[in-house]
Amino acid sequence: MTPVHEELLREFQNFSVTAPTATSLMERISQRLHQQMTRYNWVGFYLVDPADSNILLVGPFVGSFTPNARIPLNTGLCGAAASSGQTIVVHDVSKDSRYLAGSPLVKSEVVAPILVKNKLAGELDIESYFTNTFTKPEQDFVEACATVVRAYLGKR
After folding, report:
1. Tens digits of residue pLDDT in 39-85
2. Range 12-19 contact pairs with CB under 8 angstroms and sequence separation of 24 or more
3. Which of 41, 43, 129, 152 is the most buried (most CB within 10 A)?
4. Count of alpha carbons within 13 Å of 155, Cβ hemisphere only?
5. Greatest pairwise CA separation for the chain in angstroms
């Protein structure tokens, strides 16, 4: 991870100790990643619908377009990450038939699932207007950010 990654991660870990709610933690992470990581053009969380565990609902997000508000677990890259429990990285969304377009500007995406007690709670979704944004160090960083939220939710 880069020094910027490490600094942001420390900030998120420190804030998670005093964050009043999971929503406030996710809002902070979304805002700071969007501000500091210039190629992260849309940053947000999807959360499992409490009324239907087969649906993801958009949570806190920051970005230049309105995302898909509801995503079935069998749809899109978010659904693929949720269903598999594995991080999905797509370097060029135009070449992946699973991609569910939120904006025609998006070129690459990473989705890191957030599992609490081995059960899907949500995921961190980041989209970029540049191809090949999510290298292995970027993936590791995004997964570490998702882990901060997982740890917070696991304490509740």
Report:
1. 999 999 999 999 999 999 999 999 988 788 999 998 999 999 998 99
2. 12/145, 12/148, 13/148, 16/148, 16/149, 16/151, 16/152, 19/152
3. 43
4. 12
5. 42
Please state, in angstroms and rounded to a whole number, the distance separating the CA atoms of residues 67 and 84. 22
pTM, rounded to two decimals? 0.96
Q: Are 73 and 88 in contact (CB under 8 A)?
A: no
Identify the CATH class of 3-154.
alpha beta
Rounded Cα distance, 118 and 40, in Å:
28
3-state secondary structure of 86: coil
To the nearest 10°, report the CA torsion of 47, 27, 152, 117.
10
Which residue, chain included where needed, has tokens 């700071």?
32
